[in-house]
Amino acid sequence: MEGGEIVPETTNLVQKQKELAELIDRFSSGEGAHATDIPSLFCLRSSKVTEPIYRVHEPALCIVAQGKKEVMLAEERYQYGPADYLVVSVDLPVSGQIIEASAEVPYLCFRLDFKPGQIVELLDESELRAVQPGESERGLFISQTSTSLLDAAIRLIRLLETPEDINALAPMYTREILYRILKGQQGEMLKQIAVEGSGAYRIKDVIKQIKENYAQPLRIEELAELANMSPSSLHRHFKEVTAMSPLQYQKRIRLQEARRMLLAETADAAEAAFQVGYDSPSHFSREYAKMFGLPPIADMKRLRDSVAGYTGREMLESATSMI
What we know:
InterPro entries: Homeodomain-like_sf (IPR009057), HTH_AraC (IPR018060), Tscrpt_reg_HTH_AraC_N (IPR009594). The chain is an alpha+beta fold. Helices cover about 50% and strands about 20% of the residues.
């Protein structure tokens, strides 16, 4: 109630977004991603539009309180701002770019990392209906923000003001946030990772296997056996969840890891190519240019020119923190 009148839902939503933005601003003193006393919570801030940033995005909820961001998954483009939130439910190689930010109105984002096991526990302990095993759905989605979700997010971030309450209350507020997502418009897409027998559940181990052994040759028959699927079924479910084939997934992991090495200045282009599994430096250079727009040496020069004064390691920290 406000002045004896009911506050419209849209007005309340805007007020909550503003409150969340103010809290993120308070707990992010400079550019980049700021770890907090709550291990799974990060406050992200940028006062400028960024170049595309590449990394493997692990399961997380991202609520943009101010500004706008674009994420690319394979050839799919997702944009979200204060009216939306993004959820990644499995490890996905993506690129992200802040497309709306300024010194006066910086990009501000609340990121909460989570584990699939937390979703399993919530479904087991609540009355939420689990999805039936069957078709798989994308492991990344955008949905509309609600006041109930923002309320829970605000309560969680406000715990940073009273650190002595974090151990007792942060797990409760985190559970509420995940519960709100599961009850949301696209909660079924998150539930699938927790339902034993679903396509998404069965390819989780395949994703882990490829991610941990990206430099090794890909053997589809072994991956299919790991998922207890036929090779054709594995290929179909894998693409439904990740928007790419297992081979394309591996290629993106390899190229992103090679770029990380180049940014960290731990290897030159030829060494990076061999370390991530390429037999031919020329083949590596062609695929690198196809993904990042320029061959390795030219790409590194462009990045260093765009952030003059930064070392390779500083560029790497900046790049990997903002997505």
